[in-house]
Each structure stands twice: as structure tokens, then as C-alpha cells.
Records
---
Amino acid sequence: MARLEAILTGVPGDRELRLVLELLDPGNAGTFTWLDQRNASLALMPSSAAVPVQVLLELKGRGELGVLVTSREGMGRGAPLSRGVLEQLLERLHQLLPESGLRYRSDRDGPLEPMAASR
């Protein structure tokens, strides 16, 4: 089972961040749901695969946003579908939140490069 995590820092306060996260609505490719005031869920069904991907977004406060991508995809081959969803989501979040920085990403070893330098 794939489980990939990331933490963004430098995100706006909860009210503004909630409005930004609603722009992530995947349309026909899935659903976006607020689970409560601080947690949202994206349920995605990528068109190229029969494996659904779940994304949980957690407003951690202190200017942090937690991102968790999970699926039934095996990690033996690196979970390319789940990793691709994480990559696309982080790119979209960086577009929506250009002042944010990537503090942690579980699928990368060693220190992270600043987001602008990794593009």
C-alpha cells in the first residue's frame, strides 16, 4: 500500500487556506470534501489506472499544511501512480501558494531543495 507524505510551510491562515484548497476540486476525476474545519479529502480515480488514490489535506496551524497520499498501489516498484499524484498536487499547491515552501517529503531521501529550485 502506497503512503506518501509532504509538509508545506509558509501557507496562509486557515480561512484563506480553505478558500485556496477548494480550488483543488478535481471535477469529474474525483471528489473534494471537507471532513471538518481542518481536514479535507480528495478521492481521485486517475483515468489511466483502476487504482483509486486518496489525498488527505490537514491544516496544521502555524503556517503548515500536511499532505498525505494513499492508495492500494504497491511500493515495490515505487508506486509511480501515487507518486505522480503527489507530484502534481505539490506543483498545483505551489502555483496556488507561491510563498509556501516544501519542508518534508517522504519519498525523497536527504534534505529537500527549495521548491523553486526543484522545478
---
Amino acid sequence: MNKAISWFLLGATLLLSSCRTGGVIIRETPLNASETRRVVVSIIGEPRTVSQNGREVYSRYYDKKNKNIEKMDMARERYTTHVTILGDRRPYDVQVEVLVEGRNVDGGFDLIERDDDRAAAIAEKIRQALNQSRDTRNVIDDFRSF
């Protein structure tokens, strides 16, 4: 009986420890979702895709030197930034992930790893831009009664 309980606890521990959110999270951003998305786009550049609700933004593919990849057939590795606005109301959290994809034998790309160091640098730029944007807002002109 004790062996069964210890196996169960070991399995539960492994299951719960394997669930980890990658990337970097910016907590309690001061702006609304559309302004936050505008700031994110100003930092990561023109997005490759945006989700239907506008809360997930994928950057264009780039290489190790942060240059856009022009010819995808020549690239062995590619990076993309995935930014998600979390929460249902203000203050929002913003999650930043940098995904590294490598070419597989079929010629497609598979996820290799997540680059948390690069994500932290991008998250810091976004955080600074969000704080600057908050300071330059005009409360009177930005107020909408409806």
C-alpha cells in the first residue's frame, strides 16, 4: 500500500512540475488592450499574424542578429516573438515568448526551444514603452464617456 501511495505521489509531482509557462510576464500594465497592442507592435515591428481578438501577436520571422528573413528556404533556424495580453480587464499582464524553430528533414520547421534571455530583453523594451506611453497620455482628450 505504501508503495502505491509513493508511486502516486511521484507521478503527481512529475505531472505538476512539468506544466510550466515559458517566456517573461510583465505584470499589471497600465494601458488598455488596444493601446498595449499598439505599443507591442511598435517594439516588435509589423506582425505576421494577430489573433481574432487582438490579444496574441506573432512577429515576423527573424534570425539570430534580429534581421528579417527574406528567403525562408535558405534559413536553418528562425526566431519569432509571441506576445499575449493576458486578463479580462485592466490591469493586463503581458507575456512575451521568443520561439526558436529549426529546419527538419522534411524541409519544414519544428520548435526547438524558447529563448528566455531574448524574451526578457524584448519584455523590458515593451515595459519601458508602456510606461512612457502612460506618461504622455492626455487624460482629458482621451476620455470617452461612452
---
Amino acid sequence: MTRSKTGKPVDSPLIPKGPLKALILYDDDYKQYYDRRSGKRLLEVTNQGITEYVIQNGRWKLYRQVN
């Protein structure tokens, strides 16, 4: 059993019932992502897995497959 940020216990993982796509940002200064500042990273979570992207020279580039 794990705990969520709210402190409530979570007994099983969440399983989406349909297509899933979520972006997880490492930083809460969102403007840096829109300005495409080099070095910023994010995670894309889909039903197929988790992919990490990084900004290089003003463009999003695939960094690595997390799983």
C-alpha cells in the first residue's frame, strides 16, 4: 500500500478505461516550457508507457523511454 500526496492510502493502481495522455512537468514555472528554454524536461504518460522529452535548441526532443 502506498500513500497519495493527500495522505490517503492507495491500495491499487489507477487503470484508465479509455485512451490516456498526461503531461507531467518537473517545474512549476510553466512559462519556461512555452518559451522552450533549453534543458527543460517533461514526462508524457500514455497507455503505451512513459516517455521523457527535453528541450534542445528551442525544440522538443525525445530524451528516453522510461519503461
